[in-house]
């Protein structure tokens, strides 16, 4: 794997290195030694898979609060998504900034999302499937979120007028920096 730092501190783009032959290809999506060498999380007690039925559907922006914050390793395994991370760490120099990444099922990239980042994605294709590893188990009482269309963030989602869950549509605004 190639470990490429993203613009936001702690976020990494991981490019898989394919080994191809007449059967297809092989690629490692995780290696404990390589992750540890880069100072990244190596414990993944929960793995999730989502299937988003239609292009334009949006999930997020979610994170889990202390004392059980989540680190995520996100990979699109089928179709395509636009993946977004938002720094929600109040003491971070990039607090309130976001970054987006296009991920494809046939692609070689996955995103390492550190603790203290909201995460969400919009499906760019029908039937997009996303697999992600979690550094901690989901705890509903610690679940947090930001509304997808918060004017403070001004994220230019690729598909206008997305389909949202009732929960995601009702998430609070992020508000001004420092709030």
Question: Which terms would index this structure?
Answer:
single chain, 179 residues, mainly beta, 2 helices, 6% helix
Notes on the protein architecture:
With 179 residues, the protein is mainly beta. It has a single domain (2-169), classed as Jelly Rolls (Sandwich), CATH 2.60.120. 6% of the residues lie in helices and 40% in strands. It contains two helices and 13 strands; from the N terminus they run ββββαβββββββββα. It has helices spanning 32-37, 166-169; strands at residues 2-5, 12-15, 19-21, 24-26, 46-52, 58-64, 72-78, 80-87, 98-104, 109-113, 117-123, 128-134, 143-145. The strands form three sheets. The protein has a six-stranded antiparallel β-sheet, with no helix packed on it. The chain has a five-stranded antiparallel β-sheet with strand order 9-8-11-6-13, with no helix packed on it. Strands 3-4 form a two-stranded antiparallel ribbon. The longest helix has 6 residues, at 32-37. The model has no long low-confidence stretch (mean pLDDT 95).
Instruction: Give the helices and strands as they follow along the chain.
Output: EEEEHEEEEEEEEEH
What structural class results from the helix and strand content? mainly beta
What oligomeric state do the depicted chains represent? single chain
How far is the N terminus from the C terminus? 38 Å
Number of strands: 13
CATH architecture: Sandwich
Describe the sheet with the most strands.
Answer: 6 strands, antiparallel
Q: Provide the domain count.
A: 1
- Strand order across the biggest sheet? 1-2-10-7-12-5
Quick one: overall form?
A: globular
Indicate the radius of gyration in whole angstroms.
16 Å
Q: Name the CATH class.
A: Mainly Beta
